[in-house]
Amino acid sequence: MRTVTEEEGTKMRVEFFSADCRLCDQTLSLLSEHLPGVNIEVHRASECVDGSCCALAARYGVRAVPSLVVNGRVVLVGVPDEYTLKALVTTWSQPLS
């Protein structure tokens, strides 16, 4: 499990669910570019041979890909626009409460 450690020592689990399609790859690239300090654990459908990714996605309520999950909560579905990317950057630049 990869985590992001904030100044207060709070850890966030950041996960990305992908179907290995062009839109998923584009979204992951955008997230990596705009959130350079965030380590994202990627769950690719093509790498999930034992069904564990599907079970994890179901537990989180992931219904579509691409999806970004933070601490077990879906925070982004689909390819983000510029406004959404800026909101994510703002969120991660602020200390967690």
Q: Count helical runs.
A: 3
- Give the % helix: 25-40%
Task: Give the strand tally.
Answer: 5
Radius of gyration: 13 Å
Principal-axes geometry comes out as globular
Q: Helix and strand string, N-terminal first?
A: EEHEHEEH
Structural class: alpha+beta
Separation of termini? 22 Å
The oligomeric state is: single chain
| Biggest pleated sheet | 5 strands, mixed
Catalogue the unreliable spans: 1-9
* Nearest-integer average pLDDT: 84
Approximately how much beta-strand content do the residues carry? Answer: 15-25%
General description of the model:
Strands 1, 2, 3, 4 and 5 form a 5-stranded mixed β-sheet that branches. The chain is an alpha+beta fold and 97 residues long. A hairpin with a 5-residue loop joins strand 1 (3-5) and strand 2. The two termini are 22 Å apart. It is built from 3 helices and 5 strands, in the order E-E-H-E-H-E-E-H.
Key features of this structure:
97 residues; 3 helices; globular; disordered N terminus
Provide a concise account of the structure shown.
The chain is α+β, with helices and mostly antiparallel strands. The protein has 3 helices and 5 strands, in the order ββαβαββα. Strands 1, 2, 3, 4 and 5 form a 5-stranded mixed sheet that branches.
Structural topology:
Layout: E1 3-5, E2 11-18, H1 22-34, E3 41-44, H2 52-60, E4 67-70, E5 73-77, H3 82-93
Parallel strand pairs: 2-3
Antiparallel strand pairs: 1-2, 2-4, 4-5
